[in-house]
Amino acid sequence: MKILAIETSCDETAAAVLSDTKVLSSIKYTQSDHAVWGGVVPSIAKREHEKTIGPVVQKALQDAKTQIEDVDAIAVTVGPGLAIALEVGIKTAKDLATKYNKKFIAVNHIEGHILSPLLNAEITFPALALVVSGGHTELDFVEEIGRYRILAEKIDDALGEALDKAARLLELPYPGAPLLEAAARDGNPKAYALPLPMAGQEDQGHFSYSGLKSAFARLVTTTGIDKTNDLAAAFQNRAFQHLINVTKKSIEKLETVPHDLLVGGGVIANQELRSRLTKMAEELGMAVHFAPMDVTGDNAAMIGLAAFYKAQKNQFVEDLTKVDRLPRLRVDKLV
Length: 335
Ligand code: KG4
Ligand code: ZN
Prior knowledge:
Blueprint: E1 2-7, E2 12-19, E3 22-30, H1 42-63, E4 73-79, H2 83-100, E5 103-108, H3 109-115, E6 127-132, E7 137-144, E8 147-154, H4 159-169, H5 177-185, E9 206-207, H6 210-223, H7 228-252, E10 260-264, H8 271-284, E11 287-290, H9 301-312
Parallel strand pairs: 1-4, 4-5, 6-10, 8-9, 10-11
Antiparallel strand pairs: 1-2, 2-3, 6-7, 7-8
Helix pairs in contact: 1-2, 3-9, 4-6, 4-7, 5-7, 6-7, 7-8
């Protein structure tokens, strides 16, 4: 089955063509106009999506050596994400599905991140999945593909968002998390004392970064930013420690611990975090599967993969007029 997938939930305009689970093409245009504002501006995202979605879809089809007529279904992210950004992808997908009389699959963006490691790994279910991105931090129990239970989730800032904000305090350009990682490599994580979020309450299933971010802002005000490497290392260390502590505690609470841990989302590009999660999984006797590096950040290949599994279960949208953007969609809700 050939699927054309479209993703416009945030600041990447992306399209991909898959043949079953094989990615034939994956095109992504990362909008750069947000950098001067230090974060994603929804109205700019919408305008940029509108400008680029057509060419991005064309290029995806071209690279996959596929005509739109040969595609069996059109898939699109319907949420969660920025409402006016989601809208652009949904409209494009609806127009194509109507014009070419194609089946239509509505996809949850988080499910895309959860399943992204399966682009190069095969596992058996149940499993666990950790998603760490700019908008999400959550640990899910995956009964089987399509059935998710949230074990732990963010109660304020997401991990990627917190790393980007810390980087901004160090005057690194947006999105700063990769630059923070580079700076942290040459720094001493113990140079400064920062609070460990939710210390002693790690079993409550809450990821929280706003307190750490405020403490970091105060620290930077007093120290200045001359010692960037040490400051970056101290922040990243605490941020990752918190992620691991809550994840580990939430897993240890389970009656039976599944064998596999899937890990996806933009923050997983971080090598330090990959090695800490690998160590954690070893301690828990689990096998960890990271999203391949080219699908850690937002992309349409993971949306196409999630769509393929929905298509296998015949989960197509019957009435296109009922498809709407779902900015706050959760992964335990079906679409
Ligand atoms: O998955 P993603 O592209 O978008 C959302 O769904 O939110 O994740 C983007 C996030 C941003 O916060 C970005 O700064 C972060 O992933 N990120 C990183 C690294 N590369 C990207 N965080 C830590 N280390 C990196 N190397
Ligand atoms: Zn994402």
